[in-house]
Amino acid sequence: MPEHTLKFPELAPSGHHKMNWVTGHMPILGQIRRRYEKDKPLLGQRIAISLHLEAKTAVLAELLHIGGADVAITSSNPLTAQDDVAAALSERGVQVHAFRGASDQEFDQLHQRVLDIEPTLIIDDGGELTERLHGSRSALAAQVLGGAEETTTGVLRLKALARQGRLTYPMILVNDADMKHLFDNRYGTGQSTWDGIIRSTNLVVAGKTVVVAGYGWCGRGVADRARGLGARVIVTEVNPVRANEALMDGHQVMTMEQAALLGDYFITVTGNTGVVRQEHFNAMKDGAILANAGHFDVEVDVRALKQLAVATRPGRSSEVTGYEMPDGRVLWLLAEGRLVNLAAGDGHPAEIMDLTFALQALSLEDLLEHPREAGVYPVSPAVDAWVASIRLQSLGITIDELTPEQTAYLGQS
What we know:
Rossmann fold; 15 strands; hydrolase; 7-stranded parallel β-sheet; EC 3.13.2.1; alpha/beta; 15% strand; globular
C-alpha cells in the first residue's frame, strides 16, 4: 500500500461523498474511464500531480490510476487541499501528500514527497513541480517524458524556461486550449470566485462597486458575473487592447489609484505581483473587501497591509480577517490573499473541470503516443475537438456538419 501524508484520515467518508457527487456530473471523464478500465493506456507510468486537491481533482487522479499509472498527488496551494477528499483519495489507490494549512516548509516537503515517486509524467499547476524538477530535484528530470500545465501563471513560467533554453522535457500548455481557457478560466473562475466571496462574507453584491484587476479570460469571467449580480464594475488593466475590450463590454476603465477611492470589492486576477498595494490601501473606503483569484498570494500586498494595520479583527468566518488602519478604517482580506475560489470555496463547478481534466488526461496520452523534444506545445486540435464534441453529446445536443459543397467552397476538400 502507498504511503500518505494526511492530517485527518478519519474524514474519508465525507470525501467519498464529495467524489461520488462530482463523478456523476463529469460525463467526459466517465467516458475516458470506461476506456481506461479496459485498455490501461498508462500502464507502467509514474505520474506526479500538483493541483488544487478537491473532489474534481481527486476524480482525475483516480482516473489516471485506473488507467494503469502509479499516481502521487499534492495540492498546489497550502489552503486549497480538502482534508476529507485527501483522505478518501488515499483509500482509492493514489498516493496522497496533502493537508490544508501547510506552512511554507511543509508545502515544499509535500511536493518533495510527491516527486519521490520519480515521475515519468507530471500534471502541474503554477509550475510548482517544474520549479523543483529544475532546482532541488533536477536529478529526476531526465526520466520525465513530459507533462501538462493547468494555469496561466504556469504557462508564463514554462515559456520563460523555454526561452532561456532551460526546460528539460516537453510540456503541453493545457491552459491555452480553447476548451480550457474559454470555459474554465472564464465561466469557472467567474462563478467560483463569487461563490468563495459570498460564502465567506454573506454580503450583498448588487448595488456595490466591484474593481476587477486584470481583464484576461479569468478577469472577464469575474467582471461578467459581478455585473450579473447587479454590481457596477470597474476594470484596471496595463494592456491597452484588453482595456478597450473591457470598455466596450460596458465596464468602466481606470487606474487602480482612481479605483481605490470607489471600490467596495477588489478582486485581483492578473498573475502579477503588487497589484493592490500600500498607496491603494491608504485610499480605500472603510469596509472594502480584498480578494485574489490569481495563482499566487502576491497580487494583494499582504505584507504591506499587515505593516499598515494597527490591529486585526476576526470577520464573519475563518476566511475573513479585518485590518484596522491608523485612521480607524477596516479593510477585510479574504483567504489570506490566496485563491479565494478554492481557499474559501470548492473551486470550479464539476461540469467545467470535466472539460479541463479530460484535456489533462488525453494530453498525457498524446505525449506517450507522440514523443516530443523538450519545449512547450499546444494541446492537439484533435483532442480539443473531441472534448468539445463529447461535451455536446453528453447534453444531447447535435450541430450541423458541412456539406460536400460547403467543404469545397471553403477549400477544405
